[in-house]
Amino acid sequence: MHLVIIGNGITGVTAALTVRRRQPGARITLVSDESAHHYSRTALMYVYMGHMRAQDIKPYEDWFWSENRLELIQATATGLDTGRQQVHLSTGVTLAYDKLLLATGSVTKRYGWPGQNLRGVQGLYGLPDLARMEQDTRGITQAVVVGGGLIGVELAEMLHTRGIHVTMLVREARYWGSVLPPEEARLVDQQLTANGITVRYQTELAEVLADADGRVRAVRTTADEELPAQWLGIATGVAPNLSLVQHTAVETDRGILVNEQLETSVPGVYAAGDCAQHRQAGAGEVPIEQLWYTGRMQGETVGHTLAGQPTPYRRGIWFNSAKFFNLEYQTYGQVPARPAAGSESFYWEPANGQRALRINFDPARSFAVTGFNALGLRLRHDVCEAWLREQAPVQTVVAHLGAANFDPEFYRQHEPEIVAHFNRAFPQQAVQLRQGKCLISKILNL
Ligand SMILES: Cc1cc2nc3c(=O)[nH]c(=O)nc-3n(C[C@H](O)[C@H](O)[C@H](O)COP(=O)(O)OP(=O)(O)OC[C@H]3O[C@@H](n4cnc5c(N)ncnc54)[C@H](O)[C@@H]3O)c2cc1C
């Protein structure tokens, strides 16, 4: 079997390694235009900030690929002929495949703003963006970032470390308003303020203004304010990269449509990771998942299928993590920006506002926990997942918070305060703090 994979991101590489483990004899070719070798996209910011060198963000040594008989081609796949089972490359080469995996990732979204193609206006998705940012932010003093999500804060932090003043334009009334409840958004806002970032809420980009050399010199906002800026970061989201499949038999919507085995409308052609759109997303799941760890999960799942063991993709319990300057964020399960009907939410934040814990639960289902948000605290992934999977009652969870404590030295001091706060907020469900690290199975059997 010759498996051709387009894209050497986390999805394509995980699929390749899974197939290699299961089918030592398979021929596997990875085609990618961005870089010769796989690197960790999530670590791009650390290269700009000088914490890591470009070679440090490659998880595998360069000899690893030939050692594992994975053929690497650095080129753009410019054409796909699903009838002949061929991929055409920018180098003039045509690759014949038995099975094809599209793992083409995303592209930065732009909204047709006047002046959006000026020099100094860009998103941050890959290595070429990083190189351009490095060049175009050298020596500048003021920048604007459009978009109040995770990449927006990353860009703000990157620029801040170079002493560049940043103004963020955020469409919603609060930071990441479509995802974070108001209290969590306020904590992130405090981080931004503490780091000297100016934020304009309920404000969008209207126009990018040029200097005499065709470079950005300022932006005009929807509040008709002109903000001086020698660089403009676009962080208004990403969209699946569909360039290869346009005008082919592969069906698309917003992403490349796949069934639960991640197969497209064309038999033998699969899609996974950021570029894929699930035809039937499960309850509480999103059809397009643009995360590092879901890319890895999808890559592994499709790898099993490609290696001859058809395996449905099961998303499992929602998890995400990020860092807003110094504030670490973890979320598990369902924690919508506005509470779901019938659900209850317990929220704790100490007086100094440096951290927070939210636990959502459902009184109609024996107080089963439905989601966690942690800011400035680290929870143990396995414990939170088990509590959500087993629908543990909130009383059990609060009484045994220590079991979810990833960093006992740091976290233990907050547990009595959290429990006392819970007991005041929900006197009918009042609990006593249990000390010690109980086995999760024991906890759940209580
Ligand atoms: C700056 C940044 C920070 C992020 N931080 C986080 C984080 O903290 N946590 C998190 O969960 N997620 C994060 N993400 C999202 C996460 O990185 C992505 O969800 C993940 O990398 C997607 O992996 P993928 O393999 O599906 O696609 P990609 O990593 O995008 O890989 C696809 C590759 O295919 C190549 N390609 C596309 N089309 C072609 C073609 N026609 N021919 C040849 N090559 C092609 C692309 O150039 C690209 O290199 C971040 C993303 C960015 C941009």
Which key features would you list for this structure?
alpha/beta, five-stranded parallel beta sheet, binds flavin-adenine dinucleotide, globular, FAD/NAD(P)-binding domain, Enolase-like, domain 1, 25 strands
Walk me through the structure:
With 446 residues, this protein is α/β, with parallel strands linked by helices. The protein has 3 domains: 2-107 and 239-306, FAD/NAD(P)-binding domain (3-Layer(bba) Sandwich), CATH 3.50.50.60; 121-236, FAD/NAD(P)-binding domain, CATH 3.50.50; 319-445, FAD/NAD-linked reductase, C-terminal dimerisation domain (Enolase-like, domain 1, 2-Layer Sandwich). It is built from 12 helices and 25 strands. The strands form 7 sheets. It has a 5-stranded parallel sheet with strand order 3-2-1-7-19. Helix 1 (10-22) packs parallel to helix 7. The longest helix has 15 residues, at 292-306. The chain is globular. Flavin-adenine dinucleotide (FAD) binds next to helix 1, strand 2, helix 5 and helix 7. Residues 6-7, 9-12, 31-34, 41-42, 44, 76-77, 103-106, 124-126, 151, 154, 241, 243-244, 273-274, 290-293, 295, 322 line the site of flavin-adenine dinucleotide.
